[in-house]
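Sample entry (714 residues):
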Amino acid sequence: MRNLFNISALLCAAALITACSNEEMMESGTSADGLTLTATTGANTRTSVDGNYHVNWTTSDAFYAFGGTTSVDKVYSSKGTFTLKSGTGTTGTFAGMVTGAVSNLQYAVYPADKYASGTMTLTFPATYTYPNSNAPMFGKLNSGKTSVDFVQLLSGMMRIKLTGLETGVSGSLALAATGIAGSAELTIDDSGNASLGTLSSTANEVTVSFTTVNTDPLVLDIPVPAATYADGITATLQIGTGSIQAFKTTSGFVVTAGTIKEMPDINDIKIDASTGGITFSKVVENAEDAVQAMKDGAKSITVNTVKANDNIEIPASSTSSAPVTINISSVSTTSFTVKGVSGGAEAVKINVPTGSKGTLTVEDIDHVEISGDWEKVTASTGENTFVVKAGAVIKELVVTKGNIEIATDAVVNKLTLEADVTINSRLYIPVGAKMEVILGTHEFTLGGDYYTRIYGGGELVLTGDETYKGKVTDKTSGISLYGDGAKFTMKNVDYKAAKTGGRGVFIDKRCSSALIDIENSTMVGKYFCVNTNATTEVGSNNMITLSNSTFTADETALLVNIPVTVTATQCTFTGGWQGVFLRGGTSTFDGCTFNLAVNSQYDKNTMEAGAITWSEGNQAPSAAITAGNRSKSAYDYKTTFELKNSCVFSVKVDDTDSQDYPAIYIDAEKNKPNQGVVFKYSSDTFGSVGTGLDIRETTGKVTVNGTEYKGKVD
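Predicted structure, serialized as tokens:
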């Protein structure tokens, strides 16, 4: 019998006599037709196990019936063995011979082949073959001798489910514990209730062998003698040459007769084709069980509850190439810790449900991946990174060691650096999300092979130490404000665009209401530090606010080529082609410094003064400030700029003052009605620098301090 395949209340068999009832013939042990009983399980049960289980009879099942006491102990006047002849499920037809009078039959014991009637002992064997687990039962015949009710399960049961095994897989599951198999004497008291005595001739392991045939999950129901197992019970799964500990119970593990122990499922079993190694996942109740499951070899663990101050240790066998996955069903707001046990070589994936408020500390683990919602995470990882998976939300991430990776639609609201940190993938700020990075004095490196992007309504804030500044090394193609309402703020930061072709920080095509705000910072770049990206259709209401900052580029420190509003206060702009290039918009510079610093060893700007056609981007004549436009097909808008409070200019070639370039260069398309330049200044601090003010458009498209320029500045 495969006991508890679907046991509901416990074990019941009804025996109905359907053949010869001549007691004289039965007493002699001979009958022309024998005796046939119909045995039914699952009815009239008086021992509750679980409301959803039922017993199913299987081929070769047999029970032993006896009764009628004699003057000799353990000797009964009537007895017989009944074997299943037909039927499946909960109803089967049994046939057998009775020695003695049927009327004296009182009791029944299952299975017959494990019961020694002469000594009244039941044997718990050391081996079973699935699906026959043959848990011992004790039953009583009714007064009419027409039915048998199996009223007692004489052992406990351990149910273990295995999932993920394909058809045709052969293996075994062994339970090891002191005295888990052997023989015990059956005693029946005056009320007709049975019990088993202490086991003798004991064995310390019981094994169930199986071969899967469309059995996923494979459910193993294993009889276990009722006892307290001082050292616990250890389960070992073996498939082919591979062997792995599936679980180990706690010490003092209690097995009670008549009850079933639902053990944690062994899920997603995988067998390595080359090594024969076995991995699996499990569901456990708490952090302590999770630690044990990982020691046992589980690679995917679901923890029902993680409580305050729990510690989950990740074993060294969990590596970045084969990490353990921990799924947490419920976690409180009080912190818990996940840490490595061998100095940081471990790796782990941690998932919590959306809406959780967990606080996690990661200590010395080489590689960590997390999903779900987190109140706060403190990460200490190796170079192989702390990974925030797609859809995850972390309110605050503190990195004390290691690098990080944030998926494109993951959100980290606040990132605090307590060490230098690299983002090893593209950093995208999702629509409407805000990410604040607290640098302190540490270095924050933006990696990845593309742009850092701030989507519509998103915001990226970089803040360093006020005295010593934090550092940002940007190895991407630049920080792009990539949607309407995107915002970038940087304060107390030394920023370097490290990638050849990196664009610094810029407002991308077609964006509206975007804002760049930089304060008390330095920016160094190749092509640009701060810029905009133009296209035929431009956005509106974009703003760039710069204060107390220094911008240095090999080509152009500040490039504006859309109708944006720029406000710069106490800033320095230095470029090899232009310090500032204004191709549109309205700009106000208050107390700023503009430097043209031509490097003769750098790529030469081919657009010389007097060029009547400018190309795209910063392809225009060099000056400390270049303003206007000479393109008939693009940048069709006006440029307005003002210099306030004695701005400072310099023009140098290879660090030497030069008269080869102007301080300010202005030009415009005279036949484009939307174009032109409006220039206003409070004092002339540029006229004696380089070639001074060079205005090429003389038909009135350029206005200087309110007067149309016709070849002379009044």
